[in-house]
Every structure is written in structure tokens, then in C-alpha cells.
Amino acid sequence: MRKYLFIILIVTAAISLMYAQTSQITCSGSTTVLPIAQAAAEAYMDLHPSINISVRGGGSGVGIAALQNGTVHIANSSRPMKASEAEACEAKGFKPAAYAIANDGIAILVHHTNPLKNITISQLKDIYTGKIVNWKELGGKDLPIVVISRDVSSGTFEVFNEKALSGEKVISSAQLLASNNAVVTAVSNTPGGIGYAGLGYITDDVRVVSVNKIEPTLATIQDGSYPLSRKLFMFTRGKATGDVERFIAWIQSDEGQKIVTEQGFVPIN
Fold this sequence. Notes:
The protein is α/β, with parallel strands linked by helices. The chain has helices at 2-20, 34-47, 60-69, 83-91, 121-128, 155-163, 180-188, 218-222, 242-252, 254-262; strands spanning 23-29, 51-58, 74-77, 96-111, 118-119, 146-150, 175-177, 193-198, 206-211, 229-237. The protein contains ten helices and ten strands. It starts with a helix and ends in a 7-residue tail after the last helix. 42% of the residues are buried.
């Protein structure tokens, strides 16, 4: 009996030690950053079996709110943090630290049958605010324009709104969708549709048009000449430390940046 009790105690201790040595990292936020974070987490956990990393989407605003509330270690964001969000962090007792993990360009998408090759920032603004409503006004077919946008919790929406719309409101008839994938799918199924998404989500089912005659390429995004270029971030509660610091540093390393490239985005190095 004592022998069996001894074995049970040894097994219980081993299990307890195993869990005690497991470090948990939680991430939440941007759906644009999501594929990078997921792929990086899987690769990093393969290298470090004692680390458990969970990744959720929800939008940049959702991730930053979770960071403020202390329910995640990392907020993934496809935009810089707003001043009001940083102030809310400080009210919770910490200063947020920003870590750039990738470069990206917000690609403008149209249906594959749309002959449009280029669009200007001014034309984008007029389309999304309802001043241009038919493709014939841009030299295309006599076809109503269907405006497809991200929802307001999206970091991609925030950057697009700032860079393309100068902060003006999107037309009320626009379809507001919760993810990059949803936008790509909607545009691919809508002959009159126009939308936007991060580079890593582009498929052959849609056409990417240049903006101000500049295409979103590795070179134009890295040098910032593409008008809708941006950086993708991970935010932490104060300067990252321990396993969180090592995970983010690995993403920023050459090995981690290979994953960024594999996911269709542009490396920071």
C-alpha cells in the first residue's frame, strides 16, 4: 500500500512540476496581425515546449482594451496606440511599450472583372464618403459602387480613415465587416465592390489597384512611398520582460521575420 502511495505522490509531484514550469503568454487584438502572431506562436512553442502561447483576434481596439484591463500580456495592433488609450493605460498604473513586428500596406481591392488599374487618395475619399457612386465616373462600367469597409474597432479602419479619408465618416450604406478575410470575400463576390485589407490576406479572387500610381510592394512599403503603408505592433504593459520579452524579440529576429514574409507581410529589417 505504501509503495502505491509513494508512486502516486511521485506522479502528482511530476505533474505539478510540469505545470509549474509552463509559462503562459496571452495575446489578443488585430485580425491583421493574427496570422503572424499565430504562426510565430506555433513556431516558438515548437522551439520552447515549456511556453504556452494563446492568440485571439477581435480587432486592435479590443486587444488594447484587454491590455488595459490586464487580461492579456500582449495587445496586437495594426495601428499606433491613440493618445486616449495611452492615457487610459497610465490611469491603470502602467505605460504601454510598443514593439514593431512587421510592415504592411493596406491594399485597395476591386472585383476581378473591374478594369480599374489605379486610384488616387482623393478618389478613394470621394468613394468612401459617397461623392462618387458609380464606376463610370472613374472611366469604368455603368455600375453602382458597393463600398466595403472594416468596422470601427479595426486598426485597419483607423489607419485607412486617417490616411485616405482625413477622418471623414464612411458613407452610411457601406458594409462594415469584422475581418480582412470577410472584406476579401465580399469584394470577390461583388462586381461593383471596393474594399481594403492587409497584404497578407490578398488572394487571386480580387484585384489590387495601385494608389497614386504606386503599387504596394516590399520596396514601396519599406520606404514608405506607398500612401497606405503602416507598421504592425505588439503592445505590452510597460517594458516587456521575461518570456514575453524573449517571444517578441524572437519575432523581430531574422528567424521570426521569415514568418512575417511567409504570411505575406513585409519584414521590418
